[in-house]
Amino acid sequence: MDHSTPIVIIGAGLGGLAAAIQLKQAGYHNLRILEKDGKVGGTWAQNTYPGCSCDVPVVLYQYSFAPAIHWTNTYPSSAELQAYCEQLVAQFDLGPLLSLATEAISAIWQADSHAWTITTKQGETLQAGAIISALGQLNRPAIPALPGQDIFAGASMHSAAWDHTVDLAGKKVGVIGSAASAVQLIPEVAQVAGKLVVFQRSANYIGPRGDREIPASEVALLMSNPAAAMDIGARNRALVFDTADTFFWQAFSWTPEGRAAYGEVARRHLESQIADPDLRAKLTPDYPVGCKRFLFTDTYYPALTLPHVTLETARIEQLTANGITVTGGVHHDLDVIIYATGFETTGWHWSLDVVGDHGQRLADQWADGPEAYLGITTAHFPNFFMLYGPHTNLGHNSITYMMERQIDYIKAVLDGMAARQVDVATVTEDAQARFLLGLQDRLSATVWADPACNSWYKNDQGKITQNWGGNCRDYADAVRDVVWSDYTLEQGNKSA
């Protein structure tokens, strides 16, 4: 392994682009980025529903090595975030490394040549000494199987695959779901629909968002002294980060103070925006605060009070040709159904078929739930690294920080391999098992482990597979140094 070794990055969202930037700056010059879509941006290129935006302040949701000033809101839209990705490509000259509309469908480890053979849907075959998968966690839309879906005569779509040809003006619209994407799109749909029914399975803890438009005059003022603006921005970012990592984290680490404080934030926000006691009762969660993603919006609750909007909390029984019937026999006539039902997370069914050492398939190894050492690499899959992999999701802070730390770690492994003159690094089963044992011990002290908590962070067996068990500083400590005794190293056909 050296700086000329071919490295393939799969995915050109924020993670894949950051990996390419950091590796390029570290001197790795044989890089290629494969992206299945026709443009960069990942989730921000794919999610274009009305109201789609960042749900953490943008001061946190940008890279420390590429801060930006030209934001129009403190919580920018998906279009702005996709443009930020385009800016990264231009700023760091990633264009020559990019292969757009190129979907990797298989990656097979060749033990004799110590390389990965990658095949694309377009028929190309290429070799790589290492792979960085930047496919992430939230990219496979989940649509619940409901009786009658095949007979509904109207238009239907998932929020992550928005059909912009469907005109919602004056239509009878049903939105299934009430979580992160739903609370963004429902206020927008309510402005144009003739009738809107929101089908809620469970209520959410919601706090005030406090989004603020940043006028052009303010941006121009910042640009009058960009160096000072960047310095102040960095200090502001550190303050917001530290506040979230110290105090917001306590809602999830389940300190009495954290539970009480953020439960009170949500209660006060609900009471300030919803006067009707019956509607307020429907919007009050029946599970511990922090169990599911804590949402921030100032427009969702007011949308539910509009005269043409109905919150339906009865269970969906079936779809009909012209709507949805719920428990109790109530039928809602609908022209359009929108599934704001999130993403498939428990199975980790990547479109990429990964085959490691001795023919071990990643899909088989993860059949009972994904497992990865530090959330970055996994036993039996040499020189295979992941960004935003299993066990790295957060409830309290920004994933961009986590991905920067993961990229630092991957660089350290690659650099260490070069220094040791080895071709292959594979984490051992024992090291992975020890890491996972410690992680589950950490997670057992969080709200996600509570029996009353049922969320997408758990797999079908109730095991927490998505989330990291600490705050961001804890993760930075965990990945700061490479523990080489946790790896099997090989050079040529010999173990090092």
From TrEMBL:
> Which InterPro entries does the record match to this protein?
FAD-bind_Monooxygenase_sf, FAD/NAD-bd_sf
What GO annotations for molecular function exist for this entry? monooxygenase activity
UniProt superkingdom = Bacteria
The keyword Oxidoreductase belongs to this UniProt entry's keyword annotation: yes
Q: Which UniProt keywords apply?
A: Monooxygenase, Oxidoreductase
Q: What is this protein called?
A: Baeyer-Villiger monooxygenase
Matches recorded under Gene3D superfamilies: FAD/NAD(P)-binding domain (3.50.50.60)
Provide the coiled-coil residue spans. Answer: none
> Is Oxidoreductase set as a keyword in this record?
yes
